Structure formats: C-alpha cells, structure tokens
Amino acid sequence: LSAIFRSPIGTAIMAVEVLYSDMEFERDALLYTMLGSIVAYAVNGMFVGWQPLFQMPSPMTPLSSPLAYGWYVVLGVAAGVLGTVLPAVFYGLRDWFKRLPIRPFLRPALGGLLTGLIALAYPQVIGGGYGWMQQAINGQLLLGTLAVLVFGKILALSFSVASGGSGGVFAPSLFVGAMLGGVFATVLHQP
C-alpha cells in the first residue's frame, strides 16, 4: 500500500490498526511497519518517481467562510453512513451467494455476470478506478455519474468478490469515497 498509494506513514499506521482485531494499538509493531513502508515507498519511487498518486487541482481555492467547514462535518457523517452500507451490502450478498442452491464454482461466474451487467452501463466500476478518482478530484464528472458510481461500485465489488471471485476491497472503498466526495463538492460548489 505504501508503494501503490505513496503514503508510507499512513500505511504504517493503518497496518498496525487493521491487522489486529481488538482495539489495542500494537505500538511495538509500528517500528517494523514504518520501516517496511518506507522501504516500499523508496523502492517504488526509484522506479516510477516520487509524485503522489493523485494530483490536487492547482491552485486550490480557499473555502468562502469558516462556516463552510461545516460541510466537512456533513460529508463525514455521510461517509460514515456509507462506510456502514458498504460492508452490509458486501456481507449480505456473500451470505446470499452461499445460500444459492448451485454448485460452488458457479457462484463466482454468477457474480462476474452480474458485475459485467453493471459494467455494460457503467464501465467505470471495473478495475481500480484511479483515473476516475482523479477526474472526481478535478471536478470533471457530472453529479449524476458520481452518484450512480457510488452505489454501482458497491454492487460491482460485492457481486464480484462476495461471490467468491478474486479482488480486493481497499481500492474500491477509496473509489466509493472519492465519488461521494465528488458528489458533495459538486452539490455544495466547494473545492
């Protein structure tokens, strides 16, 4: 993650938090996760460069007033709600796929079919979507597209991975968050 997203400190802290199921912060492991993250970042940087994965539009316009920061609170609440919806849909569909009276090897095929049907209408839901995230950051996507992609990616992720197919959940979660941020920025005319 440090090499891919070019954020060694954030990756080191996330690795210490995510790898443990209880609420205890494993501070002894932080040194090792920090070293591993820095090495991954350095090796990746030597080959592909040191620029961040996502570029912020320049120049960034300041918020119009201190009260405009209140919209970040609203965005945080919306992200929290969406952060509970995504795993609920994912695990709900996983359980649904397990209950299907079909052979286990057909479940990923069905999930792939359903993902493919979504992708016919919205091909943006396929893959990591880093280019689409950058377009959302730049304000280059329409409000309707952003809103549909929030839920389209949740369904595509759930159909493909929860059915037993191959894939991750980290990049799709970033994608969903970027599209949600794009929705808020567009609706509220914020940077």
Distance between the termini: 27 Å
Shape: globular
- Low-confidence spans: pLDDT under 50, at least 5 residues? none
How many individual β-strands?
0
Topology order in helix (H) and strand (E) letters: HHHHHHHH
User: In angstroms, what is the radius of gyration?
Assistant: 19 Å
Major sheet attributes: none
Percent of residues in beta strands? under 5%
Structural class estimated from helices and strands: mainly alpha
Report what the structure shows.
68% of the residues lie in helices and 0% in strands. The protein is built from eight helices and no strands. The two termini are 27 Å apart.
Question: Keyphrases for this structure?
Answer:
191 residues, mainly alpha, 68% helix
Quick overview:
The protein has 191 residues and is mostly helical. It is built from eight helices and no strands. 23% of the residues are buried.
Per-chain topology:
Elements: H1 2-5, H2 8-18, H3 27-48, H4 70-99, H5 107-121, H6 130-138, H7 143-162, H8 170-188
